[in-house]
């Protein structure tokens, strides 16, 4: 563990610095001063992300019979975003600093203590004037002179060249107003008074087509999920699948976040990995299976069962996703936040956020929501294209029900509608019409949505793996050593291959042979410069779990027993073992894939 584990800012600075120094993550457009909220992945970051992406894709689609993949476009018909509700409601509340016009998300302002200072305006010797009242927070512990200097600098920055030099600006009519405790009315960086909270739509607008008029407006997708809903019918019709089944997709998403922060955690361009798992409505399960299984503590979630309704499917996916995170080394830093009925959107039945411990706090890594039929129904209504599927098994089972049994199902649903605390209850006529379709075997599938962020996942594994230890070298000098204890499955480089000495052609030739053998199957790094200890340390710093050293024994100097064997070093335990070259691949492959 790092010495700075308890100092989140220092810990994050070290992680950001390591990421840049060793080619994991760079600031986008750095040579031009950067570009707010966007990041580039360097050679090792690209490998790490690729490993995480592959792990998700394989676990969620390839290794399952009931999930298919999709790779949809980023730009779509804007009608999709109207139907999904994003045009009207995908907004955060933001507040603007009265001093600098800098924006901040209303729920991202931490409480602050200090004294409210007021000025009637400001002027400069060149005749420039600012006739506007200014209120700002003199933070507890901040000296009044440095506060004034800061305010002058902010005013100068805002006014541009016309105000002249910041030190020449005169602040007018200074007054001390009130002492405040725990106030959320001042910008966290500038200290300027914040204006009213206003909704700010997070979608990034663009124009599709050459005329760039309002008719050409569309959006960079703010989530990958909507394309899955929009293509649901095509996938269903072209793939010979039956509900329950899922469609998974990985791809870029864009949000004009008001306050991008915490490195890549909240970016404006990021990658999502989303699954929409389509299930039968509970009423269909009840008709087919005679009952809908209820979840209870300790329920067996290992294999899906035909009598599962939305609740067990939701629990199942929380369990599956937890196992996934355990498989990439995050098992012991997860927490769960089950949204309360007050948190939930009116259409959602349940939503759990899988949270992860980051240096800056415990934050969301993935959300898993049971969204009912909301999304497909919204597209059915807006597009007027049916999103219903036909279920032969349901039709056959429904045909065996008596009229009384059918009426009992209808009455149960009507009672549930009447008991709704959010959203409008479905009118009786609509409920009866819905059951009429259901008894014929037709329904719009419901959905469970595990939605994860790839960039957050990459940051989570780096932050979890980051560790520092103090070492004393041969000369007694203390040195801080950084080791990234990345899980072998996600590590960008799996094996470092080292000839003991670079000036011995037989060692180099053998090492090259081993490197050629391994690199066909995994990402390896060949290194012959510096001492072997230094080479191990370089690989430890980027999370390489294994090192293979080729020495004189490999070439048979200590007799035939050790001929064609190498030293395999394990990063985390420091253990070194002698392994035959012919057995190396068989030993390493299961550990890294
Ligand atoms: P938050 O509350 O943190 O803004 P959210 O609940 O809006 O996130 P979702 O819309 O559920 O997020 O998106 C699913 C996942 O996509 C999140 O769990 C997260 O991993 C990822 N994600 C969302 N927004 C961002 C972002 N701005 N930068 C990086 N990843 C993001």
Describe the structure using short key phrases:
binds adenosine-5'-triphosphate; 593 residues; flat; 17 helices; single chain; alpha+beta; 7-stranded mixed sheet; 27% strand; 5-stranded mixed sheet
Report on this model:
- The protein has 593 residues and is α+β, with helices and mostly antiparallel strands.
- A seven-stranded mixed sheet has the order 3-15-16-22-19-18-17. A five-stranded mixed sheet has the order 26-25-27-28-29, with helices on both faces. Strands 5-4-12 form a three-stranded antiparallel sheet.
- A hairpin with a 6-residue loop joins β4 (91-96) and β5 (103-105).
- α2 (43-62) crosses α14, α8 packs across α11 and α12 packs across α13.
- The longest helix is centred in the first third of the chain and has 20 residues, at 43-62.
- It is flat, with a radius of gyration of 30 Å.
- 35% of the residues are buried.
- The model has no long low-confidence stretch (mean pLDDT 94).
- The structure holds adenosine-5'-triphosphate.
- Residues 223, 255, 257, 266-267, 270, 272, 364-367, 451-453, 455-456 line the site of adenosine-5'-triphosphate.
- Adenosine-5'-triphosphate binds at residues 223, 255, 257, 266-267, 270, 272, 364-367, 451-453, 455-456.
List the helices and strands and how they pair.
Elements (H helix, E strand, L loop, with lengths): L7 H14 L3 E3 L11 E3 L1 H20 L4 E4 L8 H5 L2 H4 L1 E6 L6 E3 L6 E8 L1 E3 L5 E2 L3 E6 L4 H16 L10 E3 L2 E9 L14 E4 L2 E4 L9 E4 L4 H6 L1 H8 L5 E10 L14 E11 L2 H8 L20 H18 L6 E5 L11 E9 L2 E12 L1 H10 L5 E2 L1 H8 L3 H16 L9 H12 L2 E2 L2 E8 H12 E7 L5 E7 L10 E5 L5 H15 L4 E3 L5 H10 L4 E5 L14 E6 L5 E5 H12 L1
Parallel strand pairs: 3-15, 25-26, 25-27
Antiparallel strand pairs: 1-2, 4-5, 4-12, 6-9, 6-11, 7-8, 7-10, 13-14, 15-16, 16-22, 17-18, 18-19, 19-22, 20-21, 23-24, 27-28, 28-29
Helix pairs in contact: 2-14, 8-11, 12-13
